[in-house]
Amino acid sequence: MDTIVTIALGIIAAYLGVGLLFALPFVFIGVAKIDAPAASAGFWFKLILIPGSTVFWPLLLKRWLRGEPPPVEHSAHRTSAQSPPHP
Predict the structure, then answer these.
(1) Which of 4, 44, 69, 82 is packed most tightly, with the most Cβ within 10 A?
(2) Which residues neighbour 45 within 8 Å (Cβ) at sequence distance 6 or greater?
(3) What pLDDT shows up at residue 38?
(4) How far apart (Å, rounded) are the C-alpha atoms in residues 31 and 72?
């Protein structure tokens, strides 16, 4: 049992280590490529992005490499607001 826990913790540590190595350049350089308003954000805002970027680094790396824009929200409210008014 100790071996399984040690391996699991090692995998988690490696994942988070790679994530942190990704997050630092991403929040100061890459975030501007996938989210234009974030380009003009201040240092403290970018500092807040580091924990989330560390955890979600595979998804963010994919978007950064592809240059994908931020996703558009699809909700009932947005659909209703974009449809023409009813007569």
Answers:
(1) 69
(2) 38
(3) 83
(4) 17
Gap between the Cα atoms of 77 and 40, Å rounded = 29
3-state secondary structure the chain: CHHHHHHHHHHHHHHHHHHHHHHHHHHHHHHHHHCHHHHCCCHHHHHHHHHHHHHCHHHHHHHHHHCCCCCCCCCHHHHHHHCCCCC
Average pLDDT over residues 24-30: 92
Residue 56 tokens, joined? 């979600």
Mean pLDDT for 66-70 is: 80
pLDDT band at 87 (very low <50, low <70, confident <90, very high): low
Q: Give the domain ranges of the chain.
A: 2-69
